[in-house]
Amino acid sequence: MRCAVIKFAGTSGDGDCYHICKNILGQPTEYVFHKKTFAPQDFDLIILPGGASHGDYLRPGALAARSKVMNSILDAAKAQKCILGIGNGFQILLEAGLLPGAVLINKNLKFHCDDVFFRVENSDTPFTGLYKKGEVIRLNLACKYGNYYADSETIEQLKTKNKIILTYCDENGNPIKEANPVGSLENIAGIINSEGNILGLMPHPERCAEEILGNTDGLRIFKSILQYVEGGKVRGR
Amino acid sequence: MFLVKVYTFPKTGVLDPQGSAIKAAVSSSGFERVKDVQTGKYYEVRIDAGDKAKTQEIVKELCQNILVNPVIEDYEFEIMEEQA
After folding, report:
1. Which pLDDT tens digit goes with each residue over A163-209?
2. How many domains are there within chain B?
3. For residue A28, what is the domain's CATH number?
4. Chain B neighbors of A147, CB-CB under 8 A
5. Which residue of chain B has the CA closest to A57?
6. Closest partner residue to A109 among B18, B67, B71, by Cβ?
7. Contact assignment for A101 to B67 by CB distance below 8 Å
8. Most buried among A45, A140, A214, B65, using CB within 10 Å?
9. Are A163 and A191 in contact (CB under 8 A)?
10. DSSP string computed for A89-106
11. ipTM of this predicted structure
């Protein structure tokens, strides 16, 4: 699996994503700077990491979504390549129109950085095939603009078409309001596009993908993609 | 040259947590008559487009494509002619 990790000015999660793909999964991995372009066939997985691209100026992800490399990402999206947006990367995908909706500032106006529980709502995707539907996992969340919002029609479509992938929940898997530190609608923490090749997540699976970090709950996201790409397509159990 | 003042703000029905927090501070500071606070952003844009109608067309496009996220924001603008 050939992996690209996109770097914008202000991206900070690129090193972690590169490390997981290159050293933990052992896959050929390259950084791609936002002023560069690439062809859809160059990569199988394209990661838009977290951080505060372009200083979060205008709106988080807004400037990155209009940078040169996005043309290549749009082409890769059309070619059904796997695209994973994490944190700010999720915001970029929303701003680029590759995923529906938008983010608002967290309900309590705070930057929230902590390990949080999530429920895997759909394991029938290239990104979550190694999880069980309904499984509760713990991942690191670090964001100020994680408050997912979309109009009621979009929310209804996400629900009925099973496009909500991760929700905030308590440790027993209950998607209660109190377990949602950002205030997102329907406790949404991650969604996938209708074709199923573009996933946006608020939490950081790359920070929870190694024994030495004390938590490997995020590793299966990357391993699921690897299995999917390598053809041993796994489906939810 | 036209000076365009663009205001963007949360759509009706979209949460404005900053506005709510400011409103709470305003109320606790004794401004009982202040009933609502809404936040937004302000941009000054200078456009060289010959006439006002063309400027308006460019501003709308600029707002819809970049300055505003139509999922969560609305906008208003005013156009003023500037002497060179």
Report:
1. 999 999 999 999 999 999 999 999 999 999 999 999 999 999 999 99
2. 1
3. 3.40.50.880
4. 15, 17
5. B67
6. B18
7. no
8. A45
9. yes
10. HHHHHHHTTSSS-EEE--
11. 0.88
